[in-house]
Protein: Family 43 glycosylhydrolase
Organism: Paenibacillus xylanilyticus
Amino acid sequence: MHRLEDIHFRDPYILALPSRKKYYLYGSIGQNVWSGPAIGFDAYESEDLVHWHGPIPCFRPPADFWSDHHYWAPEVYEWEGRYYMFASFKAEGIPRVTGVLVADQPEGPFTLWSRSLTPPDWECLDGTLYVDDHGDPWMIFCKEWVQVEDGEMYAVRLTPDLKGPIGQPVLLFRASEASWSIGSGEQHNRYVTDGPFLYRMQNNELVMMWSTTGQDGYTLGLARSISGKPQGPWKQDDSPLFTKNGGHGMLFRTFEGQLCLTIHAPNDHPNERPVIFPIQEKDGQLKLLDDDSK
């Protein structure tokens, strides 16, 4: 058994399954997140969010798999009786994409379902699934700063089987639109978009958590959809949610009903680890409990 501080993951994602009374943790395997051939993806399972069993090798690429490195940010969703993993993949000379894997069980084994949901000539990452009020699936994803400098956030509607996009992606915002996003590079014109996650607030507002580089390192903040739809338009909150060099967050509820945030922190390799914070939602705001990051 492991505790979170023992698990070297970036980009943590937790799937809570009430039917099994278990939580499943996925993430980018930290040991070779930046270099070397990718191992694949691992999962851990827990009944209490403290003690974790694993690693469970939920995906190992077959010999003929097209991508060989930068296996990042796996997110797993239960959809029509199966489990779908959205994740980023890269190969030399081929732009980074968000692809989809599928399995009959949350612990895998996962196999390829859709090679790419993102445009073939775009450098993209961190696709996240959102199901709108009509039951239609959407993917929110990032077009990377490495291609556009001012990182962009997009939404695209998906086919019901999650195999492909419907229509063209819609630009939602650029990273520099957030006052807490700090440009890097010699001309301070490189802005990061990273790790989107959508959440319907108790007051029915649709918000998006996303991460960028801030004054004190990796930073997590919120944008709000004025229309209440994934297409936006989106307005950035004035103040970020987490500022002390941690991010790529997602929200989930415990089996007792407590809203929680998981991120990786710090954002320094090889020290990054999954962290869980209880969250208070009040008056249209989210507040981290037991946190001294601000």
Summary: The mean pLDDT is 96. The two ends are 32 Å apart (CA to CA). The chain is about 0% helix and 50% strand.
